[in-house]
Write a structure and sequence with these properties.
The protein is mainly beta. It contains five helices and 16 strands. A hairpin with a 3-residue loop joins strand 1 and strand 2 (about 100-110). The longest helix has 9 residues, at about 30-40. The chain is globular.
């Protein structure tokens, strides 16, 4: 059986990341060339200077530069250059569940306009393939055009993968695992227009999800499963195609690693049969985040994240709200992706981000999340499912305040799971 692997990065890839960083726009280096690039003090399209300390800030590039005895600026170099910095990262690893895999990812970051009036843009393009036949191609984007007049948010995916389900509603002891295989074709794209000179944006989007070649393994063996009961059969494919109206508010000082400000994205999505959906249905999605320094004059941050995801009508089973199915797959640390699923779901997470060294190289986090889910459409929410853990942060790029994140987390099943990422969970 195929096992999904798009959410966690094994340690082998984490080690490779330290050897594959670029130093600014126009650089896209891998392997041995990357060591030279990180040691150079190339300028970039802006940078973030930490106002809470006078100690020169350091990142992985500084460490490599000192090892190679290269000169490098101790602080971010700020100039007027515009465009996206590209970092090419080889991806190699092995897991007994799905075998060895190889691939490549390209991290994007920079400013399309004057950094004094334009928010930092970020995105990623990745592709991986495993020896068990899993293929993952993904493109994620949060692009702010000059003077923040337009914001473009995209989530494009092709996954040839698998994922188990445990039924709908909160986690319960003794629940059975139901393995499923499927292909996912996703195209989510939204364009937002700034409202005058405010921090508010109005947007219009298109959302397409097609789950194809669905195989419910236990249903194929003749069992009744949560998928077949909910779907009133065993469909081999489902399609949702619709449009959305959206509201966006963003006052964060840095979308990659915010120290202050708030973010709110609300979306009402309509999936009519006239646009190709299997059934008429609607979705309301709200993503709210707030960041504040605590204590006020320190470099430590208290971050709070809340999502509310409600559905109406006949929503395909695999399109129902589930942990780990946000754009970057970061919700529900402590749980497998899709472990908590239902017609309606509310998710809240608290994370305290502590600076462990004055030079910013080392940091740590402690986090707690809770998820409440309904088992039926219109039913009441069940008891909350808790998750939480601790994490280590290593400053990967001081110019954009990007951290390498390594987290260990527990869910309700008391299993320790590790999560790796190239930026904060939210």
């Amino acid at each position: 059986m195929r096992r999904r692997f798009d959410r966690a990065v094994p340690l082998v890839q984490v080690l490779l990341l330290a050897c594959t960083i670029s130093a600014g726009p126009g650089y896209a280096q891998v392997a041995g060339e990357a060591l030279k690039v990180v040691a150079d003090s190339a300028t970039v399209a802006g940078g973030f200077v930490d106002s809470t300390t006078t100690v020169p800030q350091r990142d992985v590039g500084d460490i490599l530069a000192s090892i190679l005895k290269r000169e490098r600026s101790p602080e971010p170099v700020i100039d007027d250059r515009r465009g996206l910095s590209k970092t090419v990262l080889p991806s190699l690893g092995y897991n007994p569940s799905y075998g060895a895999y190889a691939g490549v990812s390209i991290a994007l970051g920079g400013w399309f306009g004057d950094r004094a009036t334009t928010q930092l843009s970020a995105g990623s393009l990745s592709g991986t393939y495993s020896t068990t036949g899993q293929l993952s191609l993904q493109f994620k984007s949060d692009f702010y055009l000059p003077d923040n007049r337009w914001v473009l948010k995209g989530d494009w995916r092709y996954l040839d993968t698998s994922q188990s389900t445990w039924g709908l509603g909160p986690a319960r002891s003794g629940q059975s695992e139901y393995p499923m295989d499927f292909d996912l074709y996703r195209l989510f794209q939204t364009a937002y227009r700034r409202v005058h000179d405010s921090d508010f944006y109005l947007g219009f989007g298109y959302h397409f999800d097609r789950f194809a070649d669905i195989v419910d393994e236990r249903a194929g063996a003749g069992e009744s499963t949560p998928f077949t009961v909910y779907s009133k059969g065993a469909p081999s494919h489902t399609t949702s195609s619709g449009v959305s109206v959206n509201l966006l508010a963003d006052t964060r000082d840095n979308p990659i690693n915010a120290q202050r400000g708030l973010f709110w994205n609300a979306s009402m999505r309509f999936f009519p049969t006239a646009l190709g959906s299997d059934h008429d249905h609607q979705t309301i999605y709200s993503d709210f985040r707030i960041f504040t320094r605590l204590p006020r004059r320190s470099g430590d941050v208290l971050a709070v994240w809340n999502t509310m995801w409600f559905t109406f009508g006949e929503v395909p089973y695999l399109d129902l709200p589930a942990v780990g199915w946000d754009t970057y797959g970061r919700s529900g640390r402590g749980y497998l992706q899709g472990r908590l699923r239902g017609p309606n779901q509310s998710y809240t997470e608290f994370e305290y981000r502590k600076r462990l060294s004055e030079n910013g190289l080392w940091g740590g986090v402690a986090f707690l999340n809770l998820t409440t889910t309904t088992a039926t459409n219109g039913g009441s929410f069940g008891p909350p499912d808790y998750g939480g853990g601790l994490g280590l942060r290593v400053k990967f790029n001081k110019r954009t305040s990007t951290n390498l994140a390594i987290d260990g987390a527990y869910g309700q099943d008391s299993a320790l799971r590790f999560f790796f990422g190239m930026q904060e969970a939210f």
